[in-house]
Amino acid sequence: MSRKRMVRIAVVLLSLLYGAILGAGFLAPYDPAEQDRAHPFAPPTRLHFVDAEGSLHGWPFIYGLIPSPDNFAEYQEDRSRAFPVRLFVSGDHYSLLGFSCRRHWFGIDEPGHIFLLGTDGYGRDQFSRLLWGGRISLLAGLIAAALSLSLGMAVGSVSGYFGGFVDDTLMRLVELFLAMPWLYLLFAVRAFLPLHISPTVAFFLLVVVIGTVGWARPARLIRGVVLSARERKYVLAARGFGASDFYLLRRHILPQTMGVFLTQAALLIPQYILAEVTLSFLGLGVGEPVPSWGNMLGSLQQYHILASYWWMLAPALVLVPVFWGYQVLADFLHERLEFGH
Amino acid sequence: MAYLLRRLLHGALVLVGVSVLSFLFVQLAPGEFFSDMRLNPQVSPETIRHLRAQYGLDRALPIRYVRWARSVAKGDWGYSFAYGLPVSKLIWSRARNTLLLTITSALLAWLISIPLGIYAAERRDRWGDRVTVAGSSALLTVPDLLLALALLILAIRTNAFAAGGMTSPDFAELGTVAKIKDVAAHFTLPLAALVLGTLPIFFRHVRAGMIEALALPSIQSARAHGIPRSRILFRYALPAAANSLISLFGFSIATLLSASLLVEVVMSWPGLGPMLLEAILARDLYVVIGAVMLSTFFLVAGNLVADVLLYLSDPRIRRGPA
Prior knowledge:
Oligomer: heterodimer
Structural class of chain B: mainly alpha
CATH topology of the largest domain in chain A: MetI-like fold
Order of helices and strands of chain A: HHEEEEEHHHHHHHHHHH
Mean pLDDT of chain A: 84
Shape of chain A: elongated
């Protein structure tokens, strides 16, 4: 596969993923917090095309599930009644761009249930939670990376442009932060924050913590670029014409850092998504009932869940295309923007 | 010599800086180990006050820092609230297990990635290279968490490896050989997760270093002189790639304590990871600070070792404005 094609696929894939989480309310058939206590750990619902009499249908339908009377979380299909999959059905309320809607992409008539990726221990639909949880995890990555990069940009440009004492002090601080193992640092900072907080507060705290822990590397790289850009002939010329520091930075120097900036973004975002997932997985991040990919995986720390219900692994599997997309993007940007001149 | 001293001093300063920063974070933290006790009607406020005084928590931050520093000098690294033990003892008993795991995994990853990296670099863009590169890229896109969970599922499903912990429940009654076997069985899974996690990083690094070395004019001319391929590879190119190998070596020392955190927690390996998590949840301050300090120490030491080795091996660095 040619390089260009791969990058294009990666971009399309990532846009689809982000689009899916933005439209979570519409795409998800259920509310992420809605519990169906009759169906704990229901397996992914099978879509059927051939009915009990053996005739073929052009449109998928499903059967209801009857819980097994003997064993917990074992089900049989109830072949007596078929539920066709319906499009654009009316269901739970959600808000989209500030409007309250209840139209969903697909759904099933009552009393049937459709669980494309099965349910968790409370009978909550994994597919809906995966979409809603992606909002938390993917947005945490984006916001934290934006925070890290703007901090890094500010420190790096000041340090590189003004040099001297300021530069020395700031770079010592950078070395200090680089010297700390980041996962430990994340843990440690999290350790000193309150444990029992509302999910919204937890989300913002988490983003701030992750974002502020990682500013050092982009700061150092941006400093390097600014340092060399400062000595370019046209910058010196502009300075000779009496351009102010601020004008020089904004007009001539910071545009040069774009390559490093974008490459770092493509590297940091997946790293931070993983940081959120890891912390929430360990119970240090966003808590129930709000879904995040991390806390959805949290229940897998119990071995019997891990062994019996493979669909609980779905949030970890989604990370693979996300990582792949960003990795292709980062490689491409690194080659094109930093060395491609 | 002066260079070595300067680097050592620098490393020591970084450690001091990190310890000060950790203490500052502590100050920002609401709540502490004894907060929960306040809710317990059976514990009188007197007792709590007494306990806080005993651990010095009622003092100002600088005083606590100095006390902690004194305790570090004595080799105690503060006291754990939860265990009532010196932190150093507590951490050491766990760090041993972590190091057993990470040192073995680093060695294995080295043993696999160096030959593979050299091989791929030598056959650059031919199919052998393409396959290994594609494989490493694929591994790189699998997050550690997924890798660990997937391996665990495999273990539980196949029943081939012991899953979780470091020893079986009947460990104490086993003979020496059986004991070693038992630990090895528990060891395989976290080891595999770690090796698979670090392998693509190491491999990419070695390959890039070798490709750079093979592109050197000296190697080109050696090739033009008709020197045999294996001699070029091992006698000329490998030493030329030494710098990148040395920095990789430093990196693997640096991450000895931090690389396995998550894997340990997922597979309940009794290393530093689970202990750190427990200490965080219980707000066992000095244990957290101790663990952060120890892993920072490894990071600083790894960088230091790499710098010193580079200094010794590369005259360009020695003569340059260091």
